[in-house]
Amino acid sequence: MTLAVCLLLDDRADAAVRRLWRRLEDAGVATLLTHTHGLHVPHLTWAALRSYDLDEVRAALDALPEQPPLALHLDAFGTFRRSRCWLAPAVSAPLVERQAAVVAATVGTGAELHRHYEPGSWVPHLTLAPRLHLSDLSTVAALVYDVLPLVATGVRSALIDTSTGARYSLSHPI
After folding, report:
1. In the predicted model, what is the mean pLDDT of the chain?
2. Average pLDDT of the residues in 71-99
3. Domains, the chain, ranges and CATH?
4. 3-state SS of the chain?
5. In 10 A of CB 10, how many CB atoms?
6. Model pTM?
7. Minimal CA–CA distance to 122: which of 159, 154, 158, 97?
8. Is the separation of the CB atoms in 153 and 71 below 8 Å?
9. pLDDT for residue 21
10. Span 132-157, average pLDDT
11. How far apart are CA 94 and CA 79, in angstroms?
């Protein structure tokens, strides 16, 4: 099981991403709306931990300074080579700095970080569909570009068990 350290969106942006998930599902493209346990929420993952002690990770993240809401300007659509498609936020200094702080705090507990979340290798993204088939690419792109640009604000932080959808709140935004 993987533990994701996530930045959650403001209510308006959360609803916009959920509407996009629904439109994609209606077009026959499976999204996070129906993937695995069906408890996914729109989010940006700061770090994915392959092994960890939940209490230690939570304490380390709660010890980080509280951060103000983070503006996310989503104006791009991307895919990873294993078919995951996503919305890409513009990369800002605060975005990169916060991710590096989260990684330092979590690996400082002895947690094992997934290699794609190493600072300098991390590609910030909000997942839309975990398994995009090439034949669906034009449909997805058309629906995505109907809603972009999307301005969102990261307002809350949480730890999410990706296998069950269990969510553990943090004491403040990181």
Report:
1. 95
2. 94
3. 3-169 (3.90.1140.10)
4. CCEEEEEEECHHHHHHHHHHHHHHHHCCCCCCCCCCCCCCCCEEEEEEEEECCHHHHHHHHHCCCCCCCEEEEEEEEEECCCCCEEEEECCCHHHHHHHHHHHHHHHCCCCEECHHHCCCCCCCCEEEECCCCHHHHHHHHHHHHHHCCEEEEEEEEEEEECCCCCEEECCCCC
5. 17
6. 0.94
7. 97
8. yes
9. 97
10. 95
11. 24
Beta bridge partners of 159: 5, 168
**Pairwise CA distance, residues 124 & 93, whole Å:** 12
Find the angle CA(61)-CA(118)-CA(52) to the nearest 5 degrees: 45
Q: Which residue has the tokens 């809401």?
A: 69
pLDDT tens digits along 25-45 = 999 999 989 887 878 899 999
Going by pLDDT thresholds of 50, 70 and 90, the confidence category of residue 152 is very high
